[in-house]
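ping. complex inputs:
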Amino acid sequence: MSRTTQAPKGLRATGNFIDDRFHVAKSGEKNLRKVFPNHWSFMLGEIALYSFIILLLTGVFLTLWFKPSMTEVVYDGSYERLQGVVMSEAYASTLHIDFDVRGGFLVRQIHHWAALIFVASLVAHMLRVFFTGAFRKPREINWLIGIAIFVLAILEGLFGYSLPDDLPSGMGIRILQGVMLSLPVIGTYVSMFLFGGEFPGEDIIPRLYMLHILLIPGILLALIVAHFMILWHQKHTQYPGRGRTEKKVVGVPMFPAFAVKAGGFFFFVFAVTVAFSAFVQINPIHLFGPFSPTSITSGLQPDWYMGFMEGALRIFPNWFDFTIFGYAVPTGVLVPALVIPGILFTGLAVWPFLEAWITGDKRHHNVADRPRNAPVRTGVGMAGITFYGLLWMAGSNDILSETFSLNLYGTTWFFRFAIFIGPVLAFVITKRICLGLQRRDRATLAHGYESGTIQQLPSGEYIEVHKESPDEMVHVLRSKEPLDRTDTEDVDENGVEAPSARGLRGRLRTALAHWYTKDNVSFEGVEPHSGHHGQHEEIAPEQAETATR
Amino acid sequence: MTDNTTDHNKGEGAEGPDRVIGTPSSAEGDRLVASSADPHSEHEGPFPAEETHARPEEMQRKGEKVAAAWFTLAFLGGIIFFVGYFAFSSTEIAEPRIAQYSNVTLGGGLALALFGIGAGMTVWARRVMPHYDVSTPYDELPSSPEEKGSFGDFFMKGAAESGFTKRPLMRRTLLLAMAPLGLAPIVLLRDTGPLPGDTLKHTLWKKGMRMVVEGTEREGEATWIRAEDLGNAPGGMISALPYVQPTEEHPHGLSLNEQAKTVILLIKVGEDEWKPGMTEQQLNWTHDGIVAYSKICTHVGCPAALYEQGTHRILCPCHQSTFDAADGAKVVFGPAHRPLPQLPITVDDEGYLVADGDFSSPVGPTFWDVEKED
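pong. complex structure:
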């Protein structure tokens, strides 16, 4: 780090040129020294960023040949099996990219794989942030931006999937149009305006193309930049450990260590995406044939991120469809296609604020929670994953039915029940596991870890020797905070009801706060290695389960 | 990039340089290269690098070799990519098999090149570069009360100067002036498409229209469907479209819009197999045990293309709505609500199956005024 050599002349000249105009030496150095905490789970967001870059690069390449036109042409290109077939120019130009442009097939597949990986890594990154409580103050705004990116990414993917105008992609638009029609009052207008008339018309692909290559990526890019500027400004969260506190972040500096590692990781992500595209074929549109509103194949599956909506459409029954003054309200479409995703995304968006309201926690948080130390949040998250996962699986119920020789309608009924039972089970089981882990943590903190060494005492009794945990582990274990409900005391010291606990809202909040914290294991008064070494003494259950305030 | 330069809490909040951070336990043999002589330890930047561990020279030398090997491999990958590009010409890749070879060579080469660079950089970072952790204080995010107060004062002073709150006439007329501009983009979208009117409720089908098998060449009278054809049809079902003279606008027959609305399933049910749910009128719309339903599912519009002859069930493969063809195409399972619309059919003088009017109800996904008469 000492100034051993002066920067070479050319570099200094460039630096001076820039600094003379922008005055950036100080802030530049500060940014080069920026601290990046180390953990594998912080790389999930990086994967999303890198996939987005890959999508931009490959997308630009594809626009050089793709013709977003629904004009009917008779195919006269070099792919022999479809010669003479009537198709849209969009489909014909996609075939051109596949069979006339060298590397076109590859780039198209990289684009598709990168889109799948983009959304997948967004979800993984989001779950990491959720389960570690990294969305808490001061990072709620960035969480909301992340949700917006997630929703736009799904739309962007759906529109991109629709552009080649092959059979499955057209069916995706068809379902989209069916969902639009179901909207009360405005449905037919929305559909007629978007499609420029009836389905499929001649306008939808040019319009989706504009949304797919200009409007949505533009917004996505702006949101991603905002996401990073906020992250840069607020600095990263970090996992508990030695020296890592709410006031101080520990990690490797941006330059050179992080820059080289992150650069390398970009190439890894790109390499994996390209390897998939080279060796695992995806979306072979030449085998599907052009879109026709009158044909379909069975076993049709959307891209994975649309699966949950597809599943919801499959298992939601028609029992609640009704008419009002003779007007039809098809809840069998509205609820699964709009209400359920609406609840899912709204729930994600409001969770940070809801949790802060319940717990009354208004503090800044920079050290990530261990998921076990927030059992209710972790349980709710697992319930959400189960709900989403079951819908997603229901989206493949025909494949499940065929693969495992199950009754098709039986699978529908299974999912209709599982969608209610599964999340509840997941919540209860996850919460119990978290509490169990908390108890083990408490025991480890008090007694040290189980060494596996068996000792015989003079009395003849056998015991397992506990050894002192390493310093790092003690730090991690002690990171568990007493759950702080700073202003949710329902009675003050005189037994008078606090103003915040009065009224319906206050009572609800008190009840929720109780539910949120009641089972937590208290670490209060547990000193590291204070327990008698060598003696295996269970903590009295009632003592262990005392809720903390 | 951000305003990191405004380091409003220099020294605040930090716990001070009281500890040495993140020294790896396997640090034996490492050299301490950072010293108190480091001029940057007093730099007013956010943090000093508290400790630096260089890798042993032996490890660095080995690391350099390994990284170089990866970079060389990456270079070879790049060469493979170029070989693949020029080995298969753009005319050869029209053959799917060759296209596959080209894809694998280009993709394999590129993947190797990218992976090699990634791996080399990782080795470089882990073996050659010194390893250390540094720390920096998190910024104290809320501004001090003085700063907030000063900001508030200035803002309120400016607001008062502007007179925006004090001069309601000006303020309200400005808002009034904005209103039409806000609405303009919405109005401009009006011409993106026609109003729905009753277009969704009617199709091309007219009395006396003949039918052709969907997906085949649609010219010549030989392709018009006769009642007898149903007896020979596999599964007792034919997917059909109305026959129209090819026009200049649609040399290939029907447009996709028209196909999307007019496509039907012709199904041979058999006179004695009708279920009691069929009304007298619905039975009149059949001919000789043949019934015609819209093929477009009433759920979200996929073609309900699967038919099981034994049970007379029509299944939509998208969301598994199931309709009973012998019972007026009523929904027997799944998310659809309305039965498939029925098309009245009969035969003309020459024995061809013809439509006897338009569908019994609007085709396709259910919409708001689907059940309203015009």
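Chain B has seven helices and 14 strands.
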